[in-house]
Design goal:
The structure is a homodimer. Chain A is α+β, with helices and mostly antiparallel strands. In chain A, about 30% of the residues lie in helices and about 30% in strands. Chain A has nine helices and 15 strands. The first copy, chain A, has helices at about 5-15, 25-35, 40-50, 75, 100-105, 160-170, 235-240, 245-265, 275-280, and strands spanning about 25, 55, 60-65, 90-95, 115-120, 140-145, 180, 185-190, 190-205, 205-215, 285-290, 295-305, 310-315, 315-320, 325-330. In chain A, strands 4-5-6-10-9-8-7 form a seven-stranded mixed sheet, with helices on both faces. In chain A, helix 1 packs across helix 3, helix 2 crosses helix 3 and helix 6 (about 160-170) runs antiparallel to helix 8. The termini of chain A are far apart.
């Protein structure tokens, strides 16, 4: 049996035994139903152990104990309820940047909804050429390839749409504690937990593709963050005081994203506009927004249907498309 | 002398002898001033002949007769008056698509203003995934890489800006006969002479790069066009009844583009808005605009400062960002 065949058998075996977690399966019965020898079944169970599944192997039986929290194809597929996003996926142990790989795949014709995940990024990118710290085994790094049929002028709202999908997913663990920092970060208790980098390839009037990249700090402990970002970064684990299964959070996020995108295609941010406002960390705050060399100071009063931040500057309203926001004074201070 | 050294010597020789076109240069004097043997000078003259320069070679003298109309580095550099656009250039005999190569170079860090030219494209691309017919020896296929510091929402006007630079260049040969068909074609006598494909790579609030690709039908005769586009396409040569030196037209276009871009950076289409209107083939016409599955019919009344086409539809004004325009009825009909 080739390695490839053995891995296929391992996947089939897994799908059978994980249905009755904790209960022993008779090896002879498994051999019969999966049309394999006892030795092959035993080898396949060995493969599952290599993949960090916990399996109890006895002389005549195999018992599924638990699945690893690994961002691997098999685990991500198991329980993923989306219909389009993640239908095609490529899962890496370690890459420079999932967004770069997704863009490459797009260039080679990858389909709408394809995703790229990684357990670690060695050159994880944030907005404006910054790095996104992406250590192994603790975060989620995922890029989603979309091929919108709408025109490029509707692309800018996709970052906020994604932020809502992400904030909703994290809120299932931490209800009421999640905020969106316009335009592309998600905060827990005022600290950065997740970031979004939306990249667009387009021509006049037509989008070639969009890559939505997301980095989520899930199970990082304080020691996992480099000193310079320690005061401003946090993770779900730090806020919850327990670990979160990354695969579960990824499932929720991808399903939210698929629904949000369907709504966005239809009517932009309209249906999620109430949430955009409710999650906003900035509305009501005195802030400065820096765009290139230009800096504006004012009070953030709204986010509009195009995802622009609305500032009140000396009685006038100004819409800001993008920029670096600093909160000058919080409401409570 | 290596091939590389010989080519360098040929370029130096060329720069010396072309200064006094038609006049013989003494080979011994050339040898002395260029620090090379007589044999090397003769070989260098042979290289120039390979490059299709017309050179008269006598026993003791070399005379420059004329330069080829080739889109090669040396010819494009000679007489190019730009300061930024074309400072870095890559010139190909034949490529699939100059836009694809420019995007590749951009990914590898090529600088603002770099250009890619080709004598022929085997997969020349037009808007909306269409092909742009790009036969050898007759057209100009050039892509310009820009790295604007303005935000992506200002990118859409670049196509119209380029169309103006192009229409100005062609008008030097055919004053009063050139029109812009919004958003990205240039017409002579109602027939397509040049097309523009602007491609954008961007993230939220920041442009990574823009590639402006231009294809110009210069010296095509009727027989050079495939039958299906013969009724709708034309070339400068067909309109002028004589050939045009492609390199000269390219120089004019690139210089116009550099000036137009400097103006655009400062104030968008403002300074060229009068020209945008004057060149427009659509203003005043009854047209339909198709965007995806949506079709609008109305009278084109203006192009605004964002490069959008303004339609009058049953008394109301509508702005169109992009789309496929068909003229329903011309003013004269």
């Amino acid at each position: 049996m080739s390695r490839n065949e053995l891995e296929q058998l391992a996947e089939t075996l897994l799908s059978v035994i994980r249905k009755r977690s904790g209960q022993p399966h008779d090896i002879r019965k498994l051999s019969a139903s999966l049309k394999a020898t006892n030795t092959d079944i035993a080898s396949a169970a060995g493969v599952l152990a290599d993949w960090e599944y916990r399996i109890k192997k006895r002389k005549s039986s195999i018992t599924f104990v638990s699945a690893p929290d690994s961002l691997i194809d098999t685990e991500i597929r198991h329980g993923l309820k989306t219909r389009i996003i993640g239908k095609s996926m490529v899962c890496y142990q370690s890459v420079q940047s999932t967004n770069d790989i997704a863009a490459e795949l797009a260039g080679r014709g990858a389909e709408h909804g394809a995703i790229v995940t990684a357990d670690q990024q060695t050159k994880g990118r944030g907005r404006l050429g910054r790095t996104w710290y992406s250590p192994p085994g603790t975060g989620i790094y995922v890029s989603v390839l979309l091929r919108p049929r709408f025109t490029p002028d509707r692309a800018p709202g996709l970052a906020i749409m994604t932020a809502v999908a992400l904030a909703d997913a994290i809120s299932e663990y931490l209800p009421g504690e999640v905020q969106i920092k316009w335009p592309n970060d998600v905060w827990i208790n005022g600290r950065k937990t997740a970031g979004i980098l939306t990249e667009l390839s387009a021509e006049q009037g037509r989008i070639h593709y969009v890559v939505i990249g997301v980095g989520i700090n899930v199970n990082q402990g304080v020691g996992n963050f480099p000193e310079d970002i320690r005061p401003i970064a946090t993770s779900l684990r730090r806020a919850l005081k327990r670990k979160v299964r990354r695969v579960d959070l990824l499932h929720t996020f991808l399903l939210n994203l698929e629904k949000a995108y369907a709504a966005y295609e239809k009517s932009g941010l309209k249906s999620m506009h109430r949430k955009v406002r409710a999650y906003s960390a900035l509305i009501g705050e005195e802030i400065t927004v820096r765009t290139g060399r230009h800096e504006t100071r004012g009070r953030a009063v709204d986010i509009d249907l195009d995802g622009r931040l609305i500032l009140e500057v000396e009685g006038r309203r100004e819409a800001v498309t993008a920029g670096e926001v600093t909160v000058v004074r919080t409401k409570s201070s």
